[in-house]
Amino acid sequence: MSKVLIIEDDEVIADGMSRHLVSAGFDPVWVNKGELGLARLRYEHPDVCVLDLMLPGLDGWKLLETARAEGIGTPIVVVSARGTEHDRVHALEIGADDYLVKPFSMKELVARVRAAARRGVRGQSDERGEPIEADELRIDPLNVQAYIDGQSLELTPTEFRLLYALALERGRVVTRDELLQKIWGRRQTRRDRTVDVFVRKLRDKLETQSPEHTFIQTRYGVGYKFEPLTREASEPVA
Q1: Does domain 3-119 have CATH number 3.40.50.2300?
Q2: Angle 112-114-118 from CA coordinates, rounded to 5°
Q3: What are the structural domain ranges in the chain?
Q4: What is d(CA 227, CA 17) in angstroms, rounded to the nearest whole number?
């Protein structure tokens, strides 16, 4: 039975989550403070964490950043009333695996938790291979960072994982659905623009520092591929 740590200060919402998760065969544990939630993440190793962002004391943003900085790989599903694109993207950038905007269906929560439990703890093996070099770009898995002519691109962990995943498939078009499953662990829906948003941010960082090449090329309606091209030869981008 998978253990689910719920970090939520609203008792009514937490109770609803717990009841539905129990009915679905999970073993939920609820805490209402960020500090206590972080301690349980550190020492109890739950299979999934459901995290509210607006917590008293240590809030969900700081808890998420701290957990990932400490190498805690528990899948974290954020639940929050904050539903702007900026909030969703930022949470994913700093380490969330999924994001649900309140109010949400408890059936959907259970489905997201079940998917997170299937993915399991984040592995680091895909980020510890040999460096990849392409013209002036160096992708360094050991430091989880990329560099243009030796200057750091200051990539977030999620941006790095996206770039590294594309670079490992150099020359092959990787579909949006493949990237969503590999990086975020979920299937693509019609309105899900997560991959496009992150590719745009990643491309901006790469092309701001690289005067000679573009590195991520678009195949319209399909996905993206890693292929260094001179600016004159590069394909139109989305």
Answers
A1: yes
A2: 115
A3: 3-119, 125-230
A4: 45
Q: What percent of the chain has pLDDT over 70?
A: 90
- Does this model's pTM top 0.85? My answer is no
Distance of alpha carbon 200 from alpha carbon 226, whole angstroms: 14
Write the single-letter amino acid at 210: S
Distance CA 107, CA 11 (A): 19
pLDDT in tens, 71-90: 788 999 999 998 888 898 88
* Cα 69 off chain centre by: 14
The proportion of the chain whose per-residue pLDDT surpasses 90, expressed as a percent, equals: 50
Q: Give the bridge partners for 108, in sequence order.
A: none
Say what the pLDDT of residue 33 is. 93
Report the alpha-carbon angle 185-132-202, nearest 5: 55
Mean pLDDT confidence for 162-176: 91
pLDDT at 141: 87
Kindly report the number of other CB atoms within 10 A of residue 64's CB atom: 23
- Starting at the edge strand found earlier in the chain, the sheet holding 137-140 runs 132-134, 137-140, 145-148, 151-152
Phi-psi region of 237 (alpha: psi -120 to 50; beta: other; left: phi over 0): beta
Position 54: which residue type?
M
DSSP code per residue over 163-215:
HHHHHHTTTS-EEHHHHIIIII-S---TT--HHHHHHHHHHHHHHHH-SSEEE
Q: Which CATH architecture has domain 125-230?
A: Orthogonal Bundle (1.10)
